[in-house]
Structure formats: structure tokens, C-alpha cells
Amino acid sequence: MLTERWLGEWATQLQAAVERALRDVALGFPFEADDHRVGPPASGAELDLLRQRLPWTPDELVALHRHVGPVTLPDIGNGYFLHAPDGVLAVLDQQDRADRIGEPFAEHMDVVVFGSNGGGDLYAIAVTDGRVFRLQDASYIGGVYGGTNHGITVVAADLRDFLERFLNAVNAFAMNGDIADL
């Protein structure tokens, strides 16, 4: 379960890793680093709109928005982004049901897309069990993401596991400029 305390500690550790990366790695870039942000938390109005328009949004994702907010890391690896509630709403195809993952999965799984990377991959959380998927080169037709076994993969057992992996990837980049694949 994602508690306010755990999310606060995670955000603090993430901010420290980002600062190390910008100081120790990004200074060697042949260009000026973009703006990197962790937060601010979503407002009550933003959370209300998210719950109103996407009532199926998992509680863990709402907690992330409530206690941390969006994360924008354009120069860490290819870039990593955890979208604000308005960004989550922007990818919604239909208002009356969740987006879904179709083939290659036998069952259609309801998901909420909540993040992306600079390579075009999307990150989605399953509404029913909280698994986190990477949607890589996935098609999107009528609210359904489809692809191949390579293109749609489970990358974390739940959102906490994903956030821990996210932090580890940023820490690895801060140490040596390499990024672990999420």
C-alpha cells in the first residue's frame, strides 16, 4: 500500500537522485538540461475531476497524485514522465469505460495510462490487480491497446514496485549515466 509517508520518502529520494544526476552527469551533456520536476501534488479539484471522469482509477494512483504529483525528468535516460491528472485524462479515449489492453492477452484488461518515457513507451496500471505494464509500439484503436508479447509487458507487480524500480533507474543514471530499463 502506498502511504503518505512512503510516498513522501520516495519523492525526497527521487529529488536527491535527480539533483545528483543533473550535477554529475548532465553537466557533461553538449546541451543545457531541461527543467526537471518532482511534484507538486495535485489539488483537490484535480483529484475530484480525475475520480469523476475515471472512477475506475486505482487508489494507489490517486495517492501518488495526492502526495507527490507529476514527475518530469526529460534528461534522465531518454526521459521519464509520470503524468499529472490532466495528462491522465488527456489519453482517455472514451468517458464511459477504462482503456483496455487487448491482444496478446487472452482477457481484455482495463488500465489507466499514467506515464511515459522519451522513447514513446507508455506505462499503464491495471484497474483490477494493480500490475504495471509497459506499452511499447502498441496500437491504440477504440480505447484498446494491442501489440505483441514484446510490445506489451508487465514491468512491475504493482505501483509501489514500479516506483521503486523508477527510483533505482534514476539512481543508476546518477551514478554512471546508464539507465535501467523500466
Structural description of this entry:
The chain is of the alpha+beta class. The chain has five helices and ten strands. Strands 1, 2, 3, 4, 5, 6, 7, 8, 9 and 10 form a ten-stranded mixed beta sheet that branches.
Number of strands: 10
Mean pLDDT across the residues is: 88
The residue fraction in helices comes out at: 25-40%
In percent terms, what proportion of residues is strand? 15-25%
Largest sheet: 10 strands, mixed
Task: State the secondary-structure class.
Answer: alpha+beta
What coarse outline follows from CA principal-axis ratios?
Answer: globular
Structure characteristics:
35% helix, 10-stranded mixed beta sheet, 182 residues, 5 helices, globular, alpha+beta, single chain
Produce a short descriptive summary.
The protein has 182 residues and is an alpha+beta fold.
Topology:
Layout: H1 4-24, E1 37-38, H2 44-53, H3 59-67, E2 71-73, E3 80-82, H4 85-90, E4 99-101, E5 109-117, E6 122-126, E7 132-135, E8 139-141, E9 144-146, E10 152-156, H5 159-176
Parallel strand pairs: 4-9
Antiparallel strand pairs: 1-2, 2-3, 3-5, 4-5, 5-6, 6-7, 7-10, 8-9
Helix pairs in contact: 1-5
